[in-house]
């Protein structure tokens, strides 16, 4: 089984753009009509968008963790403006966000391993 990597890569890019809402015409198996510069530019823009989304998600998880720590500390010090309910809700939110981030990481690792084990 001979897999043309350029064709596979172009199909993956097309599916990625379609999933994000940008429609591109289907790319044939032989990369005709696509210059190398256009293919590289579309790859860089979609990967930078994905990188930005991932970075923003991790920043949000970090902010939730820091907010939870601050609320816990304020409650422990006796701040009357922070209730136990607020602390528990913040703790639950940060726990769920961290669990989701770990699951996303695990899926990425699985996908990477699967791709790396594919015969070329």
TrEMBL record:
Matches recorded under Pfam families: FliE
Record family assignment: Belongs to the FliE family.
Family matches, as InterPro entries: FliE
Transmembrane segments: none
Record localization: Bacterial flagellum basal body
Protein name: Flagellar hook-basal body complex protein FliE
Major subcellular location class: other
Protein keywords: Bacterial flagellum, Cell projection, Cilium, Flagellum
């Amino acid at each position: 089984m001979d897999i043309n990597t350029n064709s596979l890569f172009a199909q993956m890019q097309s599916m990625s753009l379609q999933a994000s809402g940008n429609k591109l015409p289907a790319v044939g198996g032989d990369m005709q009509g696509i210059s190398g510069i256009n293919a590289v530019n579309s790859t860089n823009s979609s990967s930078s968008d994905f990188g930005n989304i991932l970075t923003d998600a991790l920043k949000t998880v970090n902010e939730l963790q820091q907010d939870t720590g601050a609320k816990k500390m304020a409650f422990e010090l006796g701040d009357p403006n922070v209730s136990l309910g607020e602390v528990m809700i913040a703790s639950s939110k940060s726990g769920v966000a961290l669990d989701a981030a770990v699951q996303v990481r695990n899926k990425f690792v699985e996908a990477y391993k699967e791709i790396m084990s594919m015969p070329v």
